[in-house]
Amino acid sequence: MAFRKWKRPTVKQGGTLKTPIGLLAIEEISVVNSVSDVELAAAGYTDRLEFEKELSKSPGEHLYRIKFHLAGPDPRIDLRNADTLTPEDFEKIQSKLSKFDKSERYPGWATKVLNIIHDNPGKSAGWISDLLDIEKDWLKPSIRKLKEIGLTISLDVGYNISPRGNAYLQKQKK
Questions:
Q1: CA distances from 8 to 11, 12, 31, 157 (A)
Q2: Residue 174: half-sphere exposure toward Cβ, Cα within 13 Å
Q3: At residue 158, what are phi and psi to the nearest 5 degrees?
Q4: What is the 3 state secondary structure string of 116-139?
Q5: Which residue ranges does the chain devote to CATH 1.10.10.10?
Q6: Are 89 and 126 in contact (CB under 8 A)?
Q7: What pTM, to 2 d.p., does this model score?
Q8: Are 25 and 69 spatial neighbours (Cβ–Cβ below 8 Å)?
């Protein structure tokens, strides 16, 4: 169980959410006016003060209760660890990067960012955005697109290239 303050939900009932602990299946989302102590404990809060402090950081208008269960491991883990690419895999990645690179705002960003992460592991989105003169708030979700196709790994601070990303870059250089 989790609680969030949102203007509108960012997840859907019946949907899934990829998280560092695995794939979460969203069972139910409902607007609530109050939260019991039992629900607070189920959501991982030690007390009401901690809960209220966390919620105060959110500008949302409504309080939502989200019920979910662990549906399995994060599928991006197997994808990013696949260090052998078939010609079809290579073409799919090439096609995705080409689409990303056609961004009207920052043409060529995906290929540049992938190579920067490869050459500078652990660097933050802020560092990369400064290097490329790209808005950090635009870049962070864009880097997540690279993660979605298995090319990068998010670290506590910054990013690293994945085994799949390395395999792609090695094939690209040939």
A1: 9, 10, 10, 29
A2: 8
A3: 85, -160
A4: HHHHCCCCCHHHHHHHHCCCHHHH
A5: 76-173
A6: no
A7: 0.71
A8: yes
In 3-state terms the chain splits into helix, strand, coil percentages (rounded to 5) of 45, 20, 35
Q: Which two tokens mark 62?
A: 């409504």
In the numeric block, which tokens belong to residue 80? Answer: 């990013």
Q: How many residues would you count in the chain? A: 174
pLDDT tens sequence for the chain (174 residues): 999 999 888 899 999 998 888 999 999 999 999 999 999 999 999 999 999 999 888 888 899 999 999 999 988 888 899 999 999 999 999 999 999 999 888 999 999 999 999 999 999 999 999 999 999 999 999 999 999 999 999 999 999 999 999 999 999 887
CATH 3.30.360.10 applies to domain 76-173: no
Print the SS3 string covering 11-56. CCCCCEEEECCEEEEEEEEEECCCCCHHHHHHCCCCCHHHHHHHHH
**Tokens, residue 40:** 């607070």
